[in-house]
Amino acid sequence: MSRTPRALAAVALSVAAGLLVSAAPAGAASRFSPGAPGAGDPYFPDMGNGGYDVSHYDVALRYDPATKGINAVTRITARATQNLSRFDLDFLGPLKISSLTVDGRRAAFRRTGAQELVITPGRGLRKHHRFTVTAAYSGVPQTVDDPALGTSGWIPTADGAVMLNQPIGAASVYPVNDHPTDKATYTFRLTAPKDLTTLANGDMKGSRTWNGWTTTRWENSHPMASELTMVAIGRYDLLAERTGSGVPSLVATDRSLGVKPALVKEFSRQTAEVIEFESALYGRYPFTSTGGIVAKAGVGYALETQSRPVYDLTHRPGTIPSGTLLAHELGHQWFGDAVSPKRWADIWLNEGFATYSEWLYSERFSGKPVQTSFDESYAAPATAELWKGRVSDPGRDQIFDALVYERGAMAVHALRRTIGDKAFFRLIKAWPAAYMYSNGSTADFVRFAERIAHRDLRGWATPWLYSEGKPAVSSK
């Protein structure tokens, strides 16, 4: 993320014969237990759940401009990782569930706490059993306004809405295991009146118009964290092209922002340019399509939604994202999207590397040395906020602060100076490759860097990642 200073009508679903629930034998109820109501992340204890692993979400969502609401059916495919008597999904806000089934059979459910949807199937689910949950629901989704973390979730716009989910918005739109450690593939089927455009992550796989309504289908074939999913509905101008290496690219600009066709073309060209530049640094582009969306959402930030970032330019009508902003959000496609944090405390691995991507871009395209960018940030006085916390554990309310972004990028550069360019550039290509479509922690990264550099890196990691205060730097 880059921040400023601060339906579908009826859907027929069938269940394969092999997905029937296994009945628990008489007297064996004690061997089935509830899944955990959280993923164990101290920053967001209500987020995520235990006892199962999701492999795919199919979200069919119909948007009605007359009510600003949605009618939706979400089908979740998952595998039990324990003998489950019941399990939770995350689902928050006023959306009303009209039906819920597990493997095609009606299941009991209740909503409790901050965002818990507690589901009790008619029979226990055995460990390793592959099961489906289908929920139909409707209403106007909630916008999440967090005093420290800003606006996320379902964000109404003048002619539609944008869904931006970092860190806690996804559960306001669809039931989900809402933590980065449970990545899944996705299908979005978006329906709206035919004069509106519907957009989502991934590859557009078809469009159908019937009786004045258009449905588009979007497929994400690579695992994605729920906080990286996006939907945009409204009036957009679209441009589909390819990058130099042949990656399909789709850019969209909100018509109300008045971006002229020549600038839309430049937006597409620069996006492709950055993708090629960063692919040379970080390895093969990790997804099947790219692009970006310029939206009028009023949230004051851009977000690295997987494969197609969203750039809120509400206060800059008629413009496109700068090269450095593109470098930041597209750098996230490797750092944060392809490789996601194990815990939210590890977010510097997203934001530090995305900010460092800006510095590398500025050096290549504007002639500003990376060292100069480092020096400018390091010049902050010792009393500045960015020196007051630990990069490896900034605190829940500080995950979008300069401590994570600027000091995170400085930590990356200090590592480069410690291990040298040869090992460093091998590292920033090897790390995404080794952890592709998975999760990594700060400790994982330090150990990995030590293997690449063939040396103990505690002298770097202790002051830059694990300690407060302004680290000393050498003059070399």
Quick check: average pLDDT?
A: 94
How much strand?
Answer: 25-35%
The side-by-side strand order for the widest beta sheet comes to 6-5-9-3-2-13-16-15
Give the overall shape, derived from the CA principal axes: globular
Number of strands: 24
First and last CA, distance? 32 Å
- Helical stretch count? 8
Low-confidence stretches: 4-28
User: Helicity range of the residues?
Assistant: 10-25%
Biggest sheet character: 8 strands, mixed
Gyration radius from CA atoms, angstroms = 23 Å
Q: Structural class of the secondary elements?
A: alpha+beta
Describe this structure in words.
By secondary structure, the protein is α+β, with helices and mostly antiparallel strands. The protein is 23% helix and 31% strand. The strands form five sheets. It has an eight-stranded mixed beta sheet, with no helix packed on it. Strand 2 (52-64) and strand 3 (69-80) form a beta hairpin. Helix 2 runs antiparallel to helix 3 (348-366) and helix 3 packs across helix 5. Mean pLDDT is 94; it is low at 4-28.
List keywords for this structure.
single chain, 476 residues, alpha+beta
Task: Give a short synopsis of this structure.
This protein is an alpha+beta fold. Helices cover 23% and strands 31% of the residues. The chain is globular and about 65 Å long.
Topology record:
Blueprint lengths: L1 E2 L48 E13 L4 E12 L6 E4 L5 E7 L2 E2 L1 E5 L3 E5 L9 E10 L3 E4 L3 E8 L2 E5 L19 E10 L3 E4 L2 E8 L2 E12 L5 E5 L1 E7 L5 E7 L6 H22 L7 E6 L5 E3 L6 E3 L10 H9 L7 E3 L6 H19 L3 H9 L23 H18 L1 H14 L3 E3 L1 H12 L4 H7 L12
Parallel strand pairs: 2-13, 19-20, 20-22, 23-24
Antiparallel strand pairs: 1-21, 2-3, 3-9, 4-8, 5-6, 5-9, 7-8, 10-11, 11-12, 12-17, 13-16, 14-17, 15-16, 18-19, 21-22
